[in-house]
């Protein structure tokens, strides 16, 4: 399709940056979305030069209600056809639930959930009109894990995002597929930004995976139209065990797999 682009949110660091690099390497034109204009400008030029693809960007803070509209209007005004939508932007609040303000919770929920729904709602009609498209929602293994005392809304929102992604596959007959990519612990700046780097440092090294590997497995799953992708064999096994282990047994081993996340508040 003429002027076809992949739009990636949270594109300047971590998994989002690696997804952008991998898509560019595979020849896809890109629209990068993140909060920092300088980083977007640098990365956009770098990817365009390295991989000979078209790459534009739009600075936006997805915690703001109007951001999905602004992003969509930017792409429409520039006649960019979005046939791949990667909903990757995210963060988590570091404190126990009772310590976070309602404003903080609402902003986080907009980034993790409401903006994903809003952007998907904007672009899915265009995808239907254009005969198809690919959607990726970067979720988390937290969607399958028991509730946590830290980041208490993060896991529930990711569970919701998995179910939302699953529902989008009813549009398969329109040529549209949606893939929920559910990484485990990934080495990015996410944990520092979310205030839980200390807990991340305590996680056994074999559980920590590179953002590059997560991105590549996630993109390949999306392109194949898989409904759910849990990158790496390690985390596939852990997600399977989470589905069969009694809750009491998980509580006994939680300090090994998830230090600090299942302590009393």
Structure overview:
- The protein has 265 residues and is an alpha/beta fold.
- The protein has one domain: NAD(P)-binding Rossmann-like Domain (Rossmann fold).
- Helix content is 48%, strand content 15%.
- It has ten helices and nine strands.
- The protein has a seven-stranded parallel β-sheet, with helices on both faces. Strands 7-8 form a two-stranded parallel ribbon.
- Helix 1 packs parallel to helix 2 (37-51) and helix 3 packs parallel to helix 4 (102-130).
- The protein starts with a strand and ends in an 8-residue tail after the last helix.
- The model has no long low-confidence stretch (mean pLDDT 89).
Tell me the strand percentage band.
15-25%
Physical arrangement of strands within the biggest beta sheet? 3-2-1-4-5-6-9
Radius of gyration: 18 Å
**Number of discrete helical segments:** 10
CATH architecture descriptor? 3-Layer(aba) Sandwich
What's the quick description here?
With 265 residues, the chain is an alpha/beta fold. It has ten helices and nine strands.
Topology (SSEs and partners):
Blueprint: E1 4-9, H1 14-25, E2 30-34, H2 37-51, E3 55-59, H3 67-77, E4 81-87, H4 102-130, E5 133-138, H5 154-168, E6 176-181, E7 186-187, H6 190-193, H7 197-201, E8 209-210, H8 211-223, E9 228-229, H9 233-244, H10 247-257
Parallel strand pairs: 1-2, 1-4, 2-3, 4-5, 5-6, 6-9, 7-8
